[in-house]
Design goal:
This protein is about 50% helix and about 10% strand. The chain is α/β, with parallel strands linked by helices. The strands form four sheets. Strands 4-5-8-3-9 form a five-stranded parallel sheet, sandwiched between helices. The radius of gyration is 23 Å and the shape is globular.
């Protein structure tokens, strides 16, 4: 039996010393009611850890409300969290309750909290200390008994020194922190996770029973997984759907590095069936269609990996932010 914490919906698996230490930290912070900050690289499933804390706490019967502020325009984040009065800002046609109000009696989870503006962070600090806050444009304070759990993909000691987190808010979090190690630091957990994710994928996509070849297992353990569990999960899902036969090979994992297959081989494999159908149609504007689909998929993937942060996504793609916005509009991508 692998080490795990299991409570209602969430489940975290692993038996490595580093993940067992996370389990210990979760149990400790779940018994209290203080504000918590969770740190970890993208793809480490910080929200799952936050849910685990919530469902192991006295608040487990209350709501768990998650807010990813990186996907909300900066000027609207305050209204999203604290609510707003009618006419508080352009476009606020009616009074609206905030997510902190919705989380009353439960937990409010704020992902990428360092992307909040300093003034909003100060307002959040006031709520943590008093349990009271004012909606945007409002004069009367409201109350909410919601526990704050925040998350950041940044290194915690750096978020104050570089000005991304006000010191007083950091001080509130400093006593209760949970760090999720990247997958490459707990390689003994990779195969159990991969087998679990494969079983889930086979059930979800109703494929034939699948198993990993020895070569595939060796590769999974040695690969660095810079995208962590999210990258592993996506890779296993793709392999379950696209592999032929019951045995998943190293090539089926579709990872575009020298150890698996090149980008060219990856694209050839993905486009093979599609291109065959398209070429049989004759005049189908194949060149423009394929380029558009690849560009749309690439932008979608990068936006997901950056949590909807358009500035970061534009830098990753190497294009201007205005160009990215135009592409999002052109392809009708939801952000």
């Amino acid at each position: 039996m692998y080490g795990e914490i299991l409570i209602q919906p969430p489940q975290i698996m692993g038996k490595s010393p580093k993940i067992l230490r996370v389990f210990k930290e979760i149990r400790k912070v779940a018994s209290g009611d203080e504000a918590v900050i969770i740190s970890g690289e993208n793809g480490t499933y910080k929200e799952l850890v936050a849910k685990t804390i919530h469902y192991n706490s006295r608040r487990h019967k209350g709501p768990f409300i998650a807010v990813n502020v990186s996907s909300i325009p900066e000027k609207l984040a305050e209204a999203e969290l604290f609510g707003c009065e009618k006419g508080a800002f352009a476009g606020s046609a009616e009074k609206r309750a905030g997510r902190i109000t919705e989380a009353d009696g439960g937990t409010i989870f704020i992902s990428e909290i360092v992307q909040l503006e300093p003034e909003t962070q100060k307002k959040l600090l006031g709520f943590v200390k008093s349990g009271e806050f004012k909606p945007l444009g409002g004069n009367n304070p409201l109350k909410s008994d919601a526990r704050l759990i925040a998350a950041t993909s940044r290194n915690i000691p750096e978020i104050v020194s570089d000005g991304h987190c006000i010191k007083d808010l950091y001080d509130v979090f400093s006593a209760v922190q949970v760090r999720i190690p990247p997958l490459r630091e707990r390689r003994e957990d990779i195969l159990p996770l991969a087998k679990y994710l494969l079983k889930e994928a086979v059930t979800k996509f109703e494929t034939e029973e699948k198993e990993l070849s020895k070569e595939a297992k060796d590769f999974l353990v040695k690969y660095d997984w810079t995208g962590n569990i999210r990258e592993l999960e996506n890779t296993i899902k793709k392999a379950a759907i696209l592999s032929n036969g019951a045995l998943i090979s190293k090539k089926d994992l579709m990872l575009g590095d020298a150890g698996a297959c090149s980008i060219e081989e990856f694209l050839e494999e993905k486009l093979k069936r599609y291109l065959k159908e398209m070429t049989e149609l004759g005049n189908c504007n194949l060149y423009d269609t394929v380029l558009s689909e690849v560009e749309r998929s690439l932008i979608n993937i990068v936006l997901r990996e950056t949590g909807g942060n358009q500035l970061k996504a534009a830098k990753t793609l190497g294009i201007n932010r205005n160009t990215l916005r135009a592409k999002i509009k052109e392809y009708r991508i939801r952000v």
